Amino acid sequence: MARLTIKGVSKSFGTGFAVNDVSLDVEDGELVCLLGPSGSGKSTLLRMIGGFERPSAGEILIDAKDVTRLPPERRPTGMVFQSHALWTHWNVFDNIAFGLRLRRRPRAEIRERVEQALAMVGLADYGQRMTTQLSGGQQQRVALARSLVLEPKILLLDEPFASLDQHLREHLREEVKDIQSRLGITTLFVTHGQDEALALADRIVVMRDGVMEQVAPPDVIYRAPRTEFVAGFIGSMNFIRVTVEEGIGRHEDLTLPVPVADGPAVLGIRPEALSLTPSERPRAGRVHRSIDFGTHKLVDIDLLDGTRMKAMMPPETQVPRGLRVELGVSAFHVFRDGAQVYQAGARGSETERRVSHA
Question: Which residues form the ABC transporter domain (predicted)?
């Protein structure tokens, strides 16, 4: 299909930058998710790739051809917006056929390609329906078909499922992934939903304040975050501040081995890396509540200084409210000045570092 190259792209508004010096290569057939909170610059970057915004600096190349200053209609890209942007006075067929008619394709070709696009998104018998007669999920499928029918080299999706309910979002993202894999089309998908990014992406680009915090496959982003921001944004992460003295991280309630230079540090511990043991010690952590998700229980533990930790436990675990518990830690990250400086309990390690108390 196509290879996308972004070289030092920036977009300024007034004195500030929405996107600041971003460079990225997206390989042929790859699905990359741009993930970040509101205002991180992910949608602005996508709009620049599609030609709906012009960069203040930098270059955008598709298959080594500079498209930085080309308008959207002259780029080999197709864009699906969150708002669907369908014409309500036209039926489904005419909405999808519009771009082909602008390109003056023969009538027989238009019919064949529209019918193929409808079948691809699971709406084979919906061509004559008005868009107002469709559900939100069906409207989004029409918007996807309208882009795919033009056979773009690169598909751009700007939070297309944000307005849909959770169940429908999960169903449609599976369909989009299947279609993308089947067509082998290079795709960029903007979302602020971490679950969506983890489920869809070959690689995730985590953005913050217009810059890229980390670019990596989903498992690396989750298990080896480079920054404290990425660690907190992807999945659930417990953070606790410690003071490191002679290789020991000390906290009011606990200590554990932290082999970094002396000084303050932040520990990041995933809920699944915590284990609980009942304790009779008065200064032990106390269970605040336990939530049963069927496949597991998520237990909130309050430490003495008010820090709340979350532990993921087997569903049969009995952890009543108020129970005093000791914590076991099998893996953790150490951050300083927002960057990771050490990681304990590498992937696949069976070693558990037992927390000790002062």
Answer: 4-234
